[in-house]
């Protein structure tokens, strides 16, 4: 079946997320920020936050007080990390909306930082019919439940949906849940994928 609904991931597809920018002004160099992020295993902690844990609780697990203080301040500085839009994808999104194609979003994003992201990128609150935020739901991509939630709330069937994500394993998760999926690399490749499916 040809999809008629487009479901976007956000970070890495519509917004260029650069977490190091939360600490760059304070720490003064990218190398120092990178060392801090490696030391605390920031990707693993961030994924736990995306799953519903708070950064304060995660910071409390760290043994170095300075590291804990930095991590607990992440939410306040979060808007710095998502200032840049991926313009080519926004152009595609706006075109889909203009032609009446239903567009929704599923994002692995902390419940704490999501409002801060909307401060930096207010259009994210306006452009989607339904948005599923993992931290609010306490369920992550690529697991099936988050895709089921989108379908339930948007009133669509999985086979009607094309899901777009910059992480290949999330695209695979969408396929396992019954959706078509496109692994996002560039806006040009996305345009081609949508055109091939008759969506543009």
TrEMBL record:
Report the Pfam families cross-referenced here.
Answer: Hydrolase (PF00702)
Instruction: Write down the InterPro entries for this protein, in alphabetical order.
Output: HAD-like_sf, HAD-SF_hydro_IA, HAD_sf
Question: Origin, by domain of life?
Answer: Bacteria
Put simply, this protein is called HAD family phosphatase
Q: State the organism named in the record.
A: Rhodalgimonas zhirmunskyi
Tell me the classification of the organism that encodes this protein.
Bacteria, Pseudomonadati, Pseudomonadota, Alphaproteobacteria, Rhodobacterales
């Amino acid at each position: 079946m040809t999809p008629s609904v487009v479901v976007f991931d956000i970070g890495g597809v519509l917004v260029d997320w650069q977490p190091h920018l939360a600490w760059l002004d304070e720490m003064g160099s990218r190398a120092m920020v990178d060392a801090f992020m490696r030391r605390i295993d920031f990707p693993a902690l961030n994924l736990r936050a995306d799953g519903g844990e708070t950064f304060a609780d995660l910071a409390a697990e760290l043994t170095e007080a300075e590291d804990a203080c930095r991590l607990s301040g992440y939410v306040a500085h979060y808007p710095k990390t998502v200032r840049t839009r991926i313009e080519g994808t926004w152009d595609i999104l706006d075109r889909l909306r203009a032609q009446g194609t239903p567009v929704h979003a599923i994002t692995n994003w902390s419940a704490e930082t999501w409002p801060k992201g909307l401060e930096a990128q207010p259009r994210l609150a306006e452009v989607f019919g339904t948005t599923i935020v993992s931290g609010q739901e306490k369920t992550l991509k690529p697991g099936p439940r988050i895709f089921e939630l989108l379908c339930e709330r948007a009133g669509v069937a999985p086979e009607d949906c094309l899901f777009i994500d910059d992480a290949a394993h999330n695209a695979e998760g969408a396929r396992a849940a019954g959706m078509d999926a496109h692994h996002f690399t560039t806006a040009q490749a996305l345009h081609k994928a949508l055109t091939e499916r008759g969506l543009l």
